[in-house]
Each structure stands twice: as structure tokens, then as C-alpha cells.
């Protein structure tokens, strides 16, 4: 009886805490797309689910250490079976934590395709091309590829433009027109 009430209290506080933290993350990243909110919220929710599951099992007198041992023993088999999704999850976490690629950045992939990073989720990165098409790239590919990020280190970039003028041109007028353009 009392254990179940404590479990309900801890579960309620955990759910409340997860909602507060995910709302805080959204609030902090609302002004600037410097980090992927999706992957951070997935991780926070996952930790909350683990806490709720552990407390629930403890409330019903399930041996949590024995259960954890069973889960850890089966992790090897699951890691082999889910190798690619786990690689994408860790790569997405690494991309988000390193700030090498952020939502809003304009990037060029090794294939030559270019676009704005829309989101970094737990398994994929979505890139929207200028004409509206989306490129879906697994995070493990994004982490290993040589990607040109035009927003780093500064969002402004220099563009080299070859300009030719006649030798008879007034150089002061050419300079003035070039600066205006």
C-alpha cells in the first residue's frame, strides 16, 4: 500500500520533471536553432521512461537488480541486432553535442546536394533543398561524411566573382559601381 503511494508520487514527480526539462530545452533553443531539440527531448523522455519503469517494478516487488542483470546480459545480442539504429542514435547525439551541424545551417553533402538542415532526430538528419525537396540522411552517414557547413565558423561567407572590364574604362567609376553592387 505505502510503497505504491510512494511509487505514484515518484512517477508523478518524474513526469512533471521531464515536462519541465523538455519545455526548458524548447524555450532555450526557441531564439536560435543551435541545437536539435528533437534528439534532446527523445533522450530526456527516454531517461524519464527508465525511471518510471524502475520505480513501477520496485513498487510491485520485482527484483530490479536481477532484472538489470538480465537486461545487461541480453544487451550484447540486442546490440548486434540493432547495430545500425544504435549507430544512428549515437551519431545523432554526437552531431548535436558537437555543434558541427545545427538546424538552420546550409550544408553541402559529398554527393553535391545542398540544403538547410531542418532537424537532427534520433536516427536521421533532414535537409531541405532550396527548391523544397527533402534529403533524408542517416546520422551515421552524416557523422562520417565530409560535409561543407557554410554557416561555420561564421554564417556570412565570401563569394569569389570574376569581373572583367575594358582597359578604356574609368577605374573610379568601375570601383564605385562594384561597391554599389
What does it look like?
By secondary structure, the chain is of the alpha+beta class. Helix content is 55%, strand content 12%. It has six helices and five strands, in the order H-H-H-H-E-E-E-E-H-E-H. The protein has a five-stranded antiparallel beta sheet with strand order 4-3-2-1-5. The radius of gyration is 25 Å and the shape is elongated.
> What gyration radius follows from the Cα positions, in whole Å?
25 Å
Q: How many strands in all?
A: 5
Strand content: 5-15%
**Residue runs with pLDDT of under 50 for 5 or more positions:** none
Question: So what's the overall shape?
Answer: elongated
**Strand arrangement, major sheet:** 4-3-2-1-5
Helix/strand/pairing category: alpha+beta
User: Helices and strands, in N-to-C order?
Assistant: HHHHEEEEHEH
* Mean pLDDT level: 78
Query: What's the number of helices?
Result: 6
Give me the oligomer status.
single chain
Distance between the termini: 77 Å
Please outline the major beta sheet. 5 strands, antiparallel
Helix content: 55-70%
Amino acid at each position: 500500500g505505502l510503497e505504491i503511494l510512494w511509487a505514484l508520487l515518484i512517477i508523478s514527480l518524474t513526469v512533471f520533471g521531464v515536462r519541465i526539462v523538455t519545455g526548458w530545452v524548447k524555450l532555450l533553443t526557441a531564439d536560435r536553432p543551435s541545437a536539435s531539440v528533437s534528439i534532446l527531448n527523445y533522450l530526456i523522455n527516454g531517461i524519464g521512461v527508465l525511471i518510471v519503469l524502475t520505480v513501477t517494478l520496485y513498487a510491485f516487488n520485482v527484483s530490479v537488480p536481477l532484472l538489470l542483470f538480465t537486461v545487461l546480459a541480453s544487451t550484447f545480442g540486442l546490440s548486434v541486432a540493432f547495430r545500425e539504429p544504435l549507430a544512428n542514435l549515437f551519431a545523432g547525439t554526437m552531431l548535436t553535442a558537437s555543434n558541427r551541424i545545427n538546424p538552420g545551417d546550409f550544408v553541402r553533402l559529398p554527393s553535391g546536394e545542398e540544403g538547410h538542415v531542418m532537424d537532427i532526430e534520433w536516427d536521421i538528419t533532414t535537409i531541405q533543398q532550396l527548391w523544397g525537396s527533402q534529403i533524408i540522411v542517416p546520422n551515421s552517414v552524416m557523422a562520417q561524411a565530409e560535409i561543407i557547413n557554410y554557416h561555420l565558423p561564421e554564417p556570412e561567407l565570401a563569394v569569389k566573382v570574376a569581373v572583367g572590364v575594358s582597359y578604356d574604362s574609368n577605374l573610379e567609376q568601375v570601383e564605385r559601381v562594384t561597391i554599389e553592387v
